[in-house]
Amino acid sequence: MCAARASALIAIVVTVGTSGSPTQAPLLPGQGPVFQSFHGFQWEGGSADDRGFAEMASGLVKGKPYPDLHFDLVLQAIRATDRFRSVDGTLGADGTARIRLQPWAPLQSWVWQGDTLSKKTKILLLPDLKKGVRLGDLRLEEWRRIAEARLRDEGYPQARLAVERDASGARLNLKMELGVASLVRGTAVNGDMGPYRLETLLKVGDIQVGRTLWTQGLRRQAAQKIRRRFVKDKRLEGQVELAFSSDGTLTFSVDPGPVVRVSTTGKWLSQRTLKELLPLARADRYGPELLDEGDRRIIRHYRDKGFLDVESTHVREVVSGSAAHPQEVRITYRIQTFDRRYIKRILFEGNQELNDRDLSKAAKLPLGLLWFNAPRATPDLLSEVETRITNRYLSMGFSDVRLRRRIETRNGEQDLVFNIREGPRRTVRAIILEVPEGPAWDPWKFGESLLRAVADKPVLLAPIFSQRRRYRSDRRELDGLIAVLEILPSELGKPKKAIRLLTERPVPYVRADLAAVLGDLNQGAAALGSSKPIVRTHFEEDDTGATIHIEIPAQPLTFVHRLVVQGSFETRSRAVARETQDLEPDDPMNLDRLGRAQANLGNLGAFKRVDAVSMNEIAAVPATAGPGSPWNEGDLVLRLEERSRWVFSESFGYDKSTGYNFGYGVQRLNFQGMGRTLDFGL
């Protein structure tokens, strides 16, 4: 559901979703009671699950001080769970929250009023409407909107569904106003129908005047069916447009086009291959650009076979009729392939630091069709070889290397020649990382990310000191390189901690390795709760190599404040809390934790949809980051949609010893609301 729709739904819960005006407690501090720490809850009304979800939504932790607590927001968050008809309460001077919950009563009955609907249509509109379900304002409004959207898709653009509760809240009055149906009442034709009759197009499009309801889905399907009929009749340039007016008239704008014959000259192509390559027959709409796309596909087809110099052009000729009104046309693709290229050898020009033997080893050619054959010179092969050579140079520290390739024929054989501009070789002597002060920014934890520049699995060497550690690289090309991580002394007046990675000899500067280091640091900052991690770098280079300075500046961290759970009516609060342990109050807010919680809930088998958004994105209050927004990024909403609890399956098999066998299975999902599954089989 889009954010705008969700915003409107939340508005119902927060502003008008309760019967009566709930008592709002005063804001703290200044206007309300002052206490040292939150003491706990005293509940009135509601089940254990109701209270569990309300406690999760409150975001309050027993024993924690809340000097700036706005208790009215606590009540609003509890209402946003969509479980309660009313929520009110007070916060005492002793730090105890006394909250009264009035849950929505289970649905007992409903009555349809207004325009008559068939039983099948009613089930289609509200498939989950059953006795015993608890419908909050949010859930009910969502169902109402979905029902109206389904009616519009079925051909009732003015349909309106009004929902009213009785005084108890356990009975619904569903008033249906279908409005004027978009019935196809008549037809009209623009353009020349050619060999077709209107009755034929109506039959092909599965449209019946006086019976068919017009929808956008019908428009697309009918146009596709008529287009396929044109293609079947060799009228590849045929086009049709369907327009529906308010008086019920369906207008066909038809141009069947001429009969089209497609052929090739030069290099032969079978009709089957030609049909697969050319987009004319598969396109939903005809356009002259499809002919050019056919040329491009033919060229790619032959280049993948080693014909690098292939050329393809097309000619459209009118065979019968006039240029303005052709009856038959011929489209001829002229294909010229020249010689197929095979790569016998790879030669190098301009290389100085790396010799031909080293480069030939890096750019080893694959075998041809037979072991003694040279491979075909395809675009993919040429790009792969160039990438291998480039990667070899990059791994040696030549970050600015440039390659150009050409194919030369010498003594009847083709050679792939690379002209190389190596550029300067860059090395790294040290990497210095600066992180903010504070217990969360552990310099050793972040400093270990620097080792990604010299090792994949670094080996820690003894002895281990508090300010200095030694590691050995596991990379073969670095030949047992020793690297040292050490904490640097703090600079006076600089509220930062620094750690340095120093190698025993300069190592090649590899951009991919530096990117891995920065990626690790970004993930580390995100894990602490930084929504947009900031990592800066700059270089200092001299004759001994480069020193890379990496700075993680002080940045705001987001922590989980509260978790508002919507849509969990059959699933117990203990089960949801168990699977969302990573989203408890004061935990760092990051995508990994959020993803794990969503995955855990999805693996329960109880939900078919698990969405997580911020209260800022769906609440009635504007989502601004200033004082105008009462919510912050740590106020989370889990929007759940429960699936059917029963799954039925059938099986059939045959075995020589036992003969035919049949099976029937039943699964009860989310047993007792705890995500357990019971299996029954016969």
- Mean of pLDDT: 88
Output the radius of gyration.
Answer: 36 Å
Largest sheet: 7 strands, mixed
pLDDT < 50 runs, ≥5 residues: 1-32, 620-626
The fraction of residues assigned to DSSP E strands is 25-35%
Structural class: alpha/beta
Range of helix content: 25-40%
**DSSP summary, beta strand count:** 28
- Give, in spatial order, the strands making up the sheet with the most strands: 17-18-19-20-16-22-21
What is the CA-CA span between the terminal residues? 40 Å
Q: What overall geometry do the principal axes of the alpha carbons give? A: flat
Oligomer: single chain
Number of helices: 16
Describe, in plain words, how this protein is organized in 3D.
This protein is an alpha/beta fold. Helix content is 25%, strand content 31%. A 7-stranded mixed β-sheet has the order 17-18-19-20-16-22-21. A hairpin with a 4-residue loop joins strand 27 (659-671) and strand 28 (676-681). Helix 2 (48-58) packs across helix 3.
Short description:
The chain is of the alpha/beta class.
Which terms would index this structure?
alpha/beta; 682 residues; 16 helices; single chain; disordered N terminus; flat
